[in-house]
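User: quick one, fold this
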Amino acid sequence: MPQMLHWFKWEAAITWITGILLFGLVYYHGSMLVSFEDAPLSKGVSFGLSFGMIVGAWVVYDLLWKFCKVELLGVAICYALVVLSAWISCRYFTGRGAYLQLGSMMGTIMAANVWMRILPPQRRMVAALKAGKEPDLDEGACAKARSKHNSFIVIPVVFTMISNHYPGTYGSPHNWQILSGLVLLGWGAAKIIRRA
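Assistant:
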């Protein structure tokens, strides 16, 4: 089992690193995050907002699920934050940049879950079992919940990645509503897949 955990950890890391490098190369360095004309924010401020949203997404998500004990309430708060993030992103970034901004926020949450909230408890549980001790089941339940969250996040992340091929999504005047709807659709699809 530790060998499987090792590969799972590095698969998540490489996926996040390559994704964030591509996002940085194309949207930060390639200046595709903001439009050249009539940008509401300067390029530097936009980059700061983007980076702050990526880091802030993990911090807010992590704190929410540490303290929220009612799953439905946590899901409702998360969705409200997704809608707010979609609106802010579509307001200040280009359409394509906005969709990938939300995708990078969710991808960061997924990778951080693997590295900080899923694998460390699993390692401790495996070590406890090998030592003949009782593993901490509460810690295991939290890791299981974060793994479940990742299974719901992955489909919206895929939607945001392929949305760049469909200008009717990011190019629409209703782009933030479409983005919010795609996240909800992805969560619904994940629920169906998890039941299968």
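User: anything notable?
Assistant: The chain has seven helices and no strands.
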